[in-house]
Sequence to fold (401 residues):
Amino acid sequence: MWRADDSLEMAGNPSLILGTDRGRVLRSMIGQEQAVAVRGAGVKAVDPRRPRDTQEDRADASRGRTVQSHLRRVAIGQQLLAEEADMLTATPEETEHVTEYMQSQAPDLIVTMVQKVYSENVLHVRHDVWDVHTDKDRWWVITQPMNLYAQDQFPNMDLALTFHVGLCLRIPRSQKRKLSDLPIEPFAEAYRYLGEACDAVTQAEEVADYQAIGVRCREALLAFADAGQTVLPWTSAEPTPKRADLRAWADHICNVALAGASHEHRRHLLKTLLDNAWKFTNWLTHAKGTKWHDAEATLAVTENAISLCTSAVIQHLRGVPDECPACGSHRLSPQRGSHMSMPDVKWERPMCDKCGWTGEPVPINDVPEPPDDEERKPPEGECIIATVPLRTLRKPSDKTD
Fold:
């Protein structure tokens, strides 16, 4: 990661300057060049009646060439400032993370510049595009999940992002993230049932298969309620509901996780989602005239309800604020680590991606991962690497040479 001192030392080569340091240095350079150009603009006009080959005339001509050179350098600097205006702001932690990733993937290359150039939300996932310069070539590094693409193969940034998003959607189910890699403690059991239902939907063909999917979704909802009872115990003076009473526990969980008048509509939404998912899964479990789309809808509504409610409960347990108390940004992400005094315990705290603010860490319990039934077999055939630069998208109507 470049320091501000390094940026000032490299003022003679603007292509090696990052972020705000680059803009500050360029503005300083342009100011100096303009001042020199203004001083040099006072060149006297040449009298055509006088002999031109005099020492004074040669000096005036030299000044004119100097002015033109300075003006060209000012134009170049203004162009670089325009590129600077198109760049997105990035925290030092983000820049360091991308730099370390690039060095881990290409240890034979030396990273000379890293800048965030684009960001877009696709299906509720934000993908940041980074332009990475090395001592030999340039690369696109795109996040969530992070991957790199050579710019000689993907000269167009939009094409690289489109390819990246498509690749993320086509990742095989066998390569899904493990539950231990997801920050969903202590709701891992509910997500196991959802995973089983998701796998079953792709193979379902008969009514019995649809009913089995309803059973799995019903068990996922009960597992969510059971975990919620553990982390948010009943504190009311009224009798404690039965553990299988999903509606009563859904009201309790939502009231505690989303307390206050500002969360009134959010509470209503999550309670309604859980209640409707519960009704629909019970209907699918016992109905005889169901279809495949009913099973798909059951899985979708159950997964949506559990995911949203899990997120609300985890934010409450982790002490995540609605916005960063330092800068007001909503770009808050979980950060995990360990402490020397308790090396076996994982801790998590909220961190602002914009200003770097961090909250108080809380301990996290491990999620036991069941053993895999069989190891994933490597894919058959050879790996295919694109060798032709994808500069344009060809249409069927386009003529080929």
